[in-house]
């Protein structure tokens, strides 16, 4: 259902504007493109946060595209689209399971 995810070997970062006008730095963990829809997705984590004592690390999923100048355009995934969320979550869990093996 999805193309092979692109896992970033070297840290790659992205700055995302916040509601208060500042920017937050995120590390791009991996990206993938859905074969059927052609939509691209990315998983990021805040770059400046430490993992907590339970090894929990916040991960955020975005749908993304690139404009004509190569700039990333991020889009939140619609919370009401359960099929899309299920596909994104399944892909995330599969990739994490591969890393744990």
TrEMBL record:
Domain of life assignment: Bacteria
Annotated InterPro entries: UPF0473
Family: Belongs to the UPF0473 family.
HAMAP family: UPF0473
Protein's name according to its UniProt entry: UPF0473 protein H1191_01650
């Amino acid at each position: 259902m999805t193309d092979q995810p692109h896992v970033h070997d070297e840290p790659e970062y992205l700055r995302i504007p916040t509601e208060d006008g500042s920017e937050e730095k995120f590390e791009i963990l991996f990206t993938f493109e859905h074969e059927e829809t052609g939509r691209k997705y990315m998983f990021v984590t805040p770059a400046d946060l430490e993992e907590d004592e339970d090894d929990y690390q916040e991960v955020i999923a975005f749908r993304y595209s690139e404009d004509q100048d190569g700039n990333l355009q991020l889009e939140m995934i619609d919370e009401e689209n359960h099929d899309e969320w299920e596909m994104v979550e399944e892909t995330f869990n599969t990739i994490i399971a591969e890393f744990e093996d």
